[in-house]
Every structure is written in C-alpha cells, then in structure tokens.
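Hi support team,

I'm opening this ticket because the web form for multi-chain structure prediction keeps timing out on my end. I have pasted the exact lines I submitted so you can reproduce it. The total is 654 residues across two entries, so I didn't expect it to be a heavy job. Is there a limit I'm missing, or should I split the entries? Thanks in advance, R.K.
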Amino acid sequence: MNFREETMFTRRHLMGAAAALALLGSTGATLAQEIYIPLISKGFQHQFWQAVKQGADKAGAELGVRVSFDGPDNETQVDKQIDMLAAALANKPAAIGIAALDSQAVIPLLKKAQEAGIPVIAFDSGVDSDIPVATATTDNKAAAAMAADKMGELIGGSGKVAVVGHSQTSLTGIDRRDGFLDELRAKYPDIEVVSVEYGDGDHLKSTEITKAILAANPDIKGIFGTNEGAAIGVVNGVREMGSKIAIVGFDSGKAQKDAIRSGLMAGAITQNPVGIGYETVKAAVAASKGETLPKTIDTGFYWYDATNIDDPDIAAVLYD
Amino acid sequence: MTGTEAQPARLAPLLRAGGTHQKLLAFASLIVLVLGFSLASPRFFQVDNILSILQATSVNGVLAVGVTLIIITGGIDLSIGTMMTFCAVITGVVLTWMGAPLLVGVATAIATGAVCGLVSGTLIAKARIPPFIATLGMMLVLKGLSLIVTGTRPIYFNDTEGYTEISTGSLAGKVLPQFPLPNGVLVLFLVAGIVAWILGRTVLGRYTFALGSNEEAVRLSGVDTAAWKIAIYALAGGICGIAGLLISSRLNSAQPALGQGYELEAIAAVVIGGTSLSGGRGTILGTLIGALIMAVLTNGLRVLSVAPEWQTVVTGIIIITAVYADQIRRRGSV
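Hello R.K., no limit was hit. The queue was backed up. Here is the completed structure from your submission:
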C-alpha cells in the first residue's frame, strides 16, 4: 500500500517536472528567435476558414515565421473574438492579423496594439479605422455586384428575386447584400427583390428560410445565398420544394460544387481564401520589418459555373 | 408539490390529467396562429407550405420529445443539440468512411446517443453533479469531439444509397400523392407515439413522473432511483441519435459545427407545451404542439416577410406569453 502510493507520487512528480521543462523549453525557444504572428479569424469550422488557414500556414512555412490561427465558434460571438485578440496581444507578437466580426468593437484593442508598436493587418473584413497598416480582402461589394449581373442574365432581366444572407451585422454580410441590391437597382429596374432574410450561415435555418420564401412567392425566379451555409440552405430548400429557379451562391464547399455540377445551382462567386491567408501573413511579416504596404491588398474573386469549375485556375481557389 | 402521497403508480395518472388544460391551451394557441397567418397571407395555408412547416418541426420535435422525458424528472439536458451533431458525425464515420450498410448507420446513431445519455445520466445520478452543469459540460465535450473526429470538415453521405430518404423521401406520398408527407415527419410521429406509450403505460414512465415529483420519497420506498434516472437519460440520448439521423439526412452531410442553440429551441417547445421545468408534470402531445407552434411562428413570420429582427422579438414574446398563461391557469386552479 505504502509502496504503491510512493511510486504513484514519484511518477506524478516526474510527469509534472517533464511538462514544466517542456513548457520552459518551448517558451525559451520562442523568445530567442521566432517571429510569431497570430491570426484571429471569424471562425475556424467553416471550410472557407480552413482554406484561409492553409494559405497562412503556407506563407508561414515559406517565410520561416510561426503562425497561429484561432477564431470563435460562430459569426455572432463578437465578445469571444475580442477575448482572443486580447490574449494574442498579451503574447507580444511581431504583428497580428484580424478578421473582425464587428468592424467597431475591436478598435479599442487595436489602439493598444498600435501603442505597443504591433502592426495590425486586417483580413477578410475591414475595420472602421486607419490602424490596420493593410487590409487583405475580397472586394465583397464588387463580388456581389457580379453575382447580381449573373442573376440578371440568368432570369432574363425581370422578375422576382430574394437574398438569403449570412449576417445582418458583419461587414461581409452587409457588403454582399448591398453590393447585390445596388447593382440590381442600377442595372435591372425590372427585377423586384421580394425578401432579404438572414440564416446566420446555418444550413438548416437557411433551408427553412428558403422554403418560406418559395411558399410566399411561387413566381420567384432566383435566390442569392451570400455564403457557403446560406447557399447550401437555398439549394436544399429549392430541392425539397421541387422548384425550378436560378440559384447563385458564394464561396465553395463540396455540396455547393456538387449542386453546380448537377445543374441545380447556376453558379457561384468564389473568393481566393488561400490567397487571403497567404497575403495576410506576408504583409504581417513585411510590416514587422517596418516596410510600407498598400492600404488594400485585393485578393480577387471569380465567377464559376458548370463550364469552368474544373479549370485549373478556378479549381485552385475552390475547396471541398 | 410536496406529495407525501408519492406512490408513483397512483400519482402518475393524476399528474397527467393535470396537463390536459395546458394541452388545450397550447392547442388553442396553435389554431389561433394558423388562422391568423392564413388570414394574413393566402400563401400560408397551402399544401407545400404546411408540409414545409411539418418538416421544419421534425428535428426540433424529436429533440423536444427526448428532452421532455428529462425535464419531467426535474432535470435538464443542455447537450442535446451538440449530441445530435455528434451522433450524425459518428454515423458519417460508420457509413461514409467505413462503408457500412444503411441499417448499421441507423443503429449506430441511436447507440451513440444512448451511450452519451448514459454518461450524462451517470454523472448526474452517481457522481451527483447537477444536471445543468453535467450536461453543459457534455455539450462542450461533444461539440469538441465532433470537430476533432471530422477534422472540422463535414462528412457527406453521397455513397450511402437512400440516406437522404430517411428525412426527405415520402412513403406517405405513395399512398396519398396529394399530400406527400416527408418521412422525417413520420419518424417524429413514431418517436412521439412510442415515448408517449412509455410515459403512460410502463414502469419507466411511472418512475419518470415520480422522480420529478418527489425523488426522495421514491428512493425511501426502496427504488434504485439512480438506475432509473440513468435509463431515462440514455433513452433521451437514443432519441437525440434519431434527431441526428434526421438532420444529417436532410443536409446529406454531418456538419460538425452545427448543433449549439438547438437545445434551447427544443426546451422552448417543451415549455410551451406545458411541461413544468420543476418536474413531475408534462405530456408528449403538449411537446409536439409546442414544437409545431415554434415552427408555425417562424414560417408564418417569414411568409409575411416580417423583418428578421422583429421575428426574433415576436418569438421571444410568444414563449413568455405561453408560459405566463400556464402560470395563471395553475394559480387559478390551486
């Protein structure tokens, strides 16, 4: 009995010591040489963010810097993102990347970063401030305007359409909605937008929204889903109701690609998520060395449909 | 509810009778809502839209039926949303990654849920962790595990023939082509029927009510309350597994990031249906009506194109009103 307790004690002791040593070792190494760049994203579970991370990791490996990637569970958790940002700043990184969920809420912390001399790179969404030395992003308004042009062509320039959005408050959500609506208003006066709803990027919620829109407007001709979850929800809802309408999506993901191949979805706008991650880290490293950067780094967007989905240029920016 | 008369056998029918008024009240609210929306929009009361509403009820309804059992025992389960997702993920692993046949997948979903419920039940009944805390912990554990198992990527069911039929196919449509009721709704009715039978006609059902009315009295009369409680959580877990089948079949994929938040919608349906959060009282029919009210409300407000932010406010007000009406009724009857 005694003997057993003693061995157990010793083992635990050893394990503790080993863990402590390992910890010391790693921080020691960090302090010594590594350039550390944390990226705070809007999430990490959507495939889009995984692709951004992939690009960030690639740049990190090429430039020999340590990159971390973290984000809250869903795109409404502004408070959690702020906590993550605070924790990342506490580590005194060389530079920091942020995809702000709320373009205002992060400003106080970004001011702190500025005072501490930590350059800030915004990615995906901009921030309502001139603190970020650069913003690596898709021009979401222009991208959504392209979606509107395609929608206009698909339905022949007149009829009813609707938007299933992914957020009523984030900058990408607002820009994609407004970019789409403004373009329709400017170029297609005969197209009537009957409904704009928000499914928070939740597939099931977006499905139910689509079905309600179809029920309320049996003569509707097209629906635009503003991100992966929204677009897949539109596809599901249309499939379940057996409707024949033009669906325009945003981003990629396997389900959306399948829907485009099968003809259920007309096509979608894809951003260049790998490029966003890559350019963010590259800009962060440059900024940490005091180089000057352009204010906006446009990472580009593309329209893809059944005809060009397998082109190498397009396939490279799509993700499953 | 300090019943010294806590003989489970006699207590149960009495309590169930107590729920009848609430059922009527909830049913009346449902009718009023349906009538109101039908008058407000000619598009609302159409076969397609009614089918949509029923289908929208299926996932939330199954979750709500499961958690009704737990709430009647005076407990709560916050993990049902992420548990549903976890079951869907494990089903995806078995079907898509391992290539097992469909029926094995169905059994896996239910078994996974039952095991999760067993763990929650044991934590609550044996380790004496309050249900709120134990299931809050489980909610996070299961959510994390879903992301770990999948590597944060969805698992698709393209290789499993007939998987999407579980939810979106229509056996009823073969008999009644004018009203192709989706299979998911049949599953909901089947689950509700079985659970109502368990609650009303079996020993497990009697102890479910008895535990919620006066657990101490049940224990003192020599019943192994821990074992029964664990059994109830496991049963509710298995039902979550069925919800996992329904949602993943409808989305043709197990989406590892979904699930959180679904527990509150299910609990709202249970409460609207007249089940008391303090335990000992509740009916499955009430829960079904509660889930239907939630679905009718969400759909109706959308069909009317009410601004999304106001939809949320109205839904909140309806939940509060439903429970307040129940309070008034009970105060009057005492």
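A quick check on our side: Chain A has two domains: 34-138+273-300, 140-271. Let us know if the file doesn't open in your viewer.
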